[in-house]
Specification:
With 481 residues, the chain is of the alpha+beta class. The chain has twelve helices and five strands. A five-stranded antiparallel beta sheet has the order 1-2-3-4-5, with no helix packed on it. Keywords: Cell membrane, Membrane, Transmembrane, Transmembrane helix.
Length: 481
């Protein structure tokens, strides 16, 4: 009997989980894609490059989509069973809610394993690929787009202006081509009309110009002895190299040492290396900051001055003839120590920040994977309490709890990056807050609590209002007596 129930609950869970997972993943990808839509438009990118970027970004967002999908599907599953009274029948048969949750608990653990595998093995590679590809797209120049009456200066060394373009965009008239390669900046071409075409491999732009002039000035710009050349033509062909406008791929190794591109083993090695480097700052301070202090050899000497040399003010020991030079030397030494100390301090703070980022990423891979289990502990009892299926109520509750989870995670990560909290505290804040809420909801679900039944609160409101009205009548009667 239990095996059939296990199959029943798993089948009821798988369908909503798969559907909600792909919906959530699509929403997250589109949200990220929308932030960079301006960098994609007008670059002449092929569909393959865009699909490649979406694929990499989808893989990196899987651990974030899985917890929300688990939360929403678990609420829908138990809500549907509660709405159809199947959950009531199962409880009346003597099967506890915890026993009924057991098969989905195991499935959720399996999902946590998938999320961890993505976070530890696939996401570093996906982040590396997507980061490199995104930078290539952002820094790529716009595709060739020649507009009427406007100088186009995206081609290196040239500025092109066309007065009018034909309907087929190949016939052009009133052409001005300004050459910026010359140091004199005086070379340009003027033509009445012509034909513009792009080569088959899209590497060259060819202008076949008619009835025009070419003006060129030769000579050294530092002297007035220059030679001006004017060349008239009936037909003139000019080619432009479009390779600068083509999308260029860079090597993935540029960002391979970023903390978001490392697995847990690589992060652990990097953390150990950073700690060893930070331990050397004490010796560096003594070597670079305190090197100019002449009293440095006596710091641990337990030296005591004779009583006859004891004075109230150290300036009494300095002769008047050298006080000025001593003050200047002290001021220079202090200023040198201050500048060196600021430089070393800034490097130390940067190393500490670098260490925190690696620790945050290490904890993220575990905390975000276990978030599936944490949100399941909230979604399963919540669905059995509200007893509503479909997408209405489950979607509202899912958004609320996921916003709490995301807000707590973002806040904790922010404080951890700033050094106000330890990385372990910041990255596990959402888990520490949501686990007690899940335990509370499980306890309420086991006792068939009416926590989200509006009729209960309506009856309480009517009783409270009746009690207040009764008190008012008693006070009025007492005042009348």
């Amino acid at each position: 009997m239990f095996k059939k129930l296990d199959k029943l609950i798993i089948k009821a869970f798988i369908g909503p989980f798969v559907a909600t997972f792909f919906i959530v993943l699509m929403v997250l990808v589109m949200q990220f894609f929308w932030l960079y839509i301006d960098d994609f438009v007008g670059k002449g990118l092929s569909a393959g490059i865009i699909l490649e970027f979406i694929g990499y970004q989808s893989a990196s967002l899987v651990p974030l989509a899985l917890p929300l999908a688990v939360l929403l599907s678990s609420i829908m599953t138990f809500g549907n069973l509660g709405e159809s009274y199947e959950l009531v029948a199962i409880k009346s048969a003597g099967i506890s809610l915890l026993r009924f949750m057991q098969p989905l608990f195991i499935v959720t653990l399996f999902i946590c394993g998938i999320a961890f595998s993505f976070a530890n093995y696939l996401i570093p590679v996906a982040n590396l690929k997507s980061k490199t590809l995104l930078n290539d797209i952002v820094y790529a120049k716009p595709a060739f787009d020649l507009k009427e009456g406007i100088f186009y200066d995206k081609l290196p060394g040239f500025a092109i202006k066309v007065g009018k373009k034909g309907e087929n965009d190949s016939t052009i008239s009133d052409i001005i081509i300004y050459e910026k390669t010359s140091t004199l900046q005086d070379n340009f071409i003027i033509a009445d009309h012509g034909i513009m075409r792009v080569s088959a491999d899209k590497r060259f732009l060819e202008f076949n110009l008619r009835n025009g002039w070419r003006y060129q000035e030769r000579g050294n710009s530092s002297t007035a002895q220059t030679e001006f050349i004017r060349l008239g033509f009936k037909e003139y062909t000019k080619q432009f190299d479009l390779s600068a406008l083509q999308f260029q791929r860079t090597d993935d190794s540029v960002y391979k040492n970023n903390h978001r591109m490392l697995s847990m083993r690589q992060l652990s090695r990097a953390i150990d290396s950073i700690k060893k480097d930070n331990a050397k700052f004490t010796q560096r301070v003594k070597r670079e900051v305190l090197y100019s202090c002449e009293f440095l050899p006596y710091l641990d000497s337990n030296w005591k001055a004779p009583k006859k040399l004891a004075v109230k003010n150290i300036q009494q020991l300095i002769p008047d003839s050298i006080k000025l030079s001593v003050r200047q030397k002290i001021s220079g030494t202090i200023e040198s120590m201050r500048s060196v100390n600021e430089m070393v301090s800034s490097e130390y703070k940067e190393q500490q920040r670098y260490l925190r980022l690696h620790k945050i990423e290490w904890h993220r891979k575990i905390s975000l994977s276990l978030a599936c289990l944490v949100l399941f502990l909230i979604g399963a009892p919540l669905g059995s309490i509200i007893r509503k299926g479909g997408l209405g109520s489950p979607l509202i509750f899912s958004i609320i709890f996921f916003m709490v989870f995301y807000f707590l995670g973002t806040t904790g990560e922010k404080f951890a990056k700033e050094g106000k909290w330890q990385p372990i505290a910041g990255m596990w804040l959402s888990t520490v807050v949501l686990v007690p809420i899940g335990i509370f909801l499980i306890e309420k679900a086991r006792k068939d609590s009416q926590l989200f039944n509006k009729e209960v609160y309506f009856r309480l409101w009517r009783k409270g209002r009746s009690f207040l009205n009764l008190k008012r009548r008693q006070v009025a009667e007492d005042d009348g007596l």
